[in-house]
Amino acid sequence: MIYTRLTVKDSVEFEGLGLHGGEPVRVLVHPGEDGIAFRTASGRWAAVAENVTDTTRCTRLGEVSTIEHLMSALAGLEVTDAEVEVRGGEMPAMDGSSQGFAEGIHSVGLAPVGEAEVRTPFKRVFLQEDGIKIAVGKGEGHWQYTYDLGERWPGQQTFESFNVALEYRKAIAPARTFALAEEIPAILQLGLAKGLDQDTALILGIEGYKNDPRFEDEPARHKLLDLIGDLYLTGIPIRFLNVSAERSGHASNVRAAALVRQSLASGAE
């Protein structure tokens, strides 16, 4: 199957405080013709699983931290080619979701840069470990995520999209990052999430939300948002995959992306 590769029509700029570091950062997404890549003054890294250098609380590509929300927006808007120029070492927190990135990209529009043939795993890829499950296979954009805290509120939430690219901007992009109320002191002590506050992060108390959610199942939607961004490190447009995940995070998401890329390589032999 052949699909049209897309890039941004013009450069689009995003500024703000880094999500974890809390320092001013600036990101420019430029038109590209060689896949998606992130670059700083000292290097350039293609957005593929092999170039991930850390998955502690975020996904780090080369020297660039917290790429998952921008990668999710690029995937959701079906951008296949872009040069991402980063000044400050990480992505801005924006409003804690990928909505700002998605709307900024949408505002400049997209342009075709050629065609490519869809490459999907020749068999379904499974990752299962310590209660975490991820299944990835060729499909038509049916994605599902189950967030499960067991007996701790809110228990289990599942969000499902039968057309993830079509529904992304309204149903997934606005979902914000979140934290359990009891974990916040430790997060702050570790020097994380300095670019977030109670307006840009959803707080989960032991009996309910501490601030107003955008969706009743916002945690499950945000975890799907992260999953989309991490699995876009496969290089496969999300409309050509069916994905189901439970309790996964950045580390397992990236491992699954690596397994998919290994499957692609095996299928080419």
Walk me through what this model shows.
β10 (125-129) and β11 form a beta hairpin. α1 packs across α5. The chain has six helices and 16 strands. It has helices at residues 68-76, 99-108, 164-172, 184-189, 218-231, 250-268; strands at 2-8, 12-17, 24-31, 36-40, 43-46, 52-54, 60-61, 82-87, 110-117, 125-129, 132-138, 143-148, 156-161, 178-180, 202-204, 241-246. The protein has 269 residues and is an alpha+beta fold. It has a domain at 2-119: 2-Layer Sandwich (Ribosomal Protein S5, domain 2), CATH 3.30.230.20. The strands form five sheets. It has a five-stranded mixed beta sheet, with helices on one face. A five-stranded mixed beta sheet has the order 10-11-16-12-13, covered by helices on one side.
Summarize the structure.
The chain has a domain at 2-119: lpxc deacetylase, domain 1 (Ribosomal Protein S5, domain 2). It is built from 6 helices and 16 strands. The protein has helices at residues 68-76, 99-108, 164-172, 184-189, 218-231, 250-268, and strands at residues 2-8, 12-17, 24-31, 36-40, 43-46, 52-54, 60-61, 82-87, 110-117, 125-129, 132-138, 143-148, 156-161, 178-180, 202-204, 241-246.
The level-1 CATH class of the domain at 2-119: Alpha Beta
Q: Output the strand order for the largest sheet.
A: 2-3-8-4-5
Q: Give the mean pLDDT.
A: 94
Secondary structure: helix percent: 10-25%
Radius of gyration: 17 Å
State the CATH architecture of the domain at 2-119. Answer: 2-Layer Sandwich
Tally of contiguous helical segments? 6
Order of helices and strands: EEEEEEEHEHEEEEEHEHEHEH
Structural class: alpha+beta
Give me the CATH superfamily of the domain at 2-119.
Answer: lpxc deacetylase, domain 1
Described by strand count, sense and barrel closure, the largest sheet is: 5 strands, mixed
**What is the oligomer described by this structure?**
single chain
Q: What is the third-level CATH name, the topology of the domain at 2-119?
A: Ribosomal Protein S5, domain 2
Q: What overall form do the CA principal axes indicate?
A: globular
What fraction strand? 25-35%
> What is the total tally of β strands?
16
Question: Spans of 5+ residues with little confidence (pLDDT < 50)?
Answer: none
